[in-house]
Amino acid sequence: MKAAVILFPGSNREGDVASALKHVTGVTPSIVWHADTELPAGTDLVVLPGGFSYGDYLRCGAIAARAAIMDAVRAHAARGGLVLGICNGFQILCESGLLPGVLVRNARLRFVCREALLKVERSDTPFTRRYAKGAIVRYPVAHGEGNYTADTEMLKRLEGEGRVVFRYVMADGKRDDTQVLNGAANSIAGIVSEKLNVLGLMPHPENHVDPLLGPTDGRALFESIAGVLERA
Amino acid sequence: MKARVLVTLKSAVLDPQGKAIEGALRSLGVPGISSVRQGKVFDVEFDGSDPAKAEATLKDACEKLLANTVIETYRIEFVG
After folding, report:
1. EC no. (chain B) (predicted)?
2. Chains A & B: contacts with CB separation below 8 Å
3. What burial letters (b/e) apply to B46-79, b meaning 16+ CB within 10 Å?
4. Nearest by CB: B70 against A66, A101, A108
């Protein structure tokens, strides 16, 4: 597996995700600068890391989504290549049109930095094969603009096509859209593209991979990706 | 040439920042405010003097970057 992590000015989780990839899969990703126009030859997985690209100016992820490297990322996705966008990376995927909808200010206007409980809604995506369908996992969240929204028609379509992969749930494992930590529509934490090869999620699986730091619920996401790419 | 682009949230989109400002104005005792919605203003200076061309260029800029049309609408005004 060859992985590339895109670095934008203001990204700050590129080290976390690179180290998680190395820790879980043994693969050291290349770090690719946003102004480059090509991905390293043979790239299987592109990661858009968390952070505050361009200081969140204009809208979160808006300027990064128009960076030179994004044409190469779009082409990679169009070929069926895997793309993982975490936090700011998810915002960038939405702004770039690779995923539908948009992430707006948290409904209660607060930056939320804590652990979130998530339900893994499907285990047949390249990112979630090593999870059981319906599993409840813990990933940390740290964002001020993670309130997923899309028009009613798009939400209906996402639900109808089963493209919600991660959903925030309460301690009883049930979703409560009135209590969801950031106000996200249908408690959506992460969605995939139609062809299941592009995943965007607000929570940070890369921060829960090492038992030294606590829970390791994020490991299976990276194991899933590595498993899929090794078989290919 | 100068233009002003106004980007505002679509009316169906919840605006928690606007709501917070609305609440703050109420608590300051500013009377008669029934609703506040927050938006963005871009003042753009322009080469050339053809308004039709400028309008087309700005529309393109709005669609490409200045507005996210999933949640926002935009309006272009020329200010001379």
Report:
1. 6.3.5.3
2. 32
3. eeeeeeeebeebbeebbeebbbbebbbebebeee
4. A101
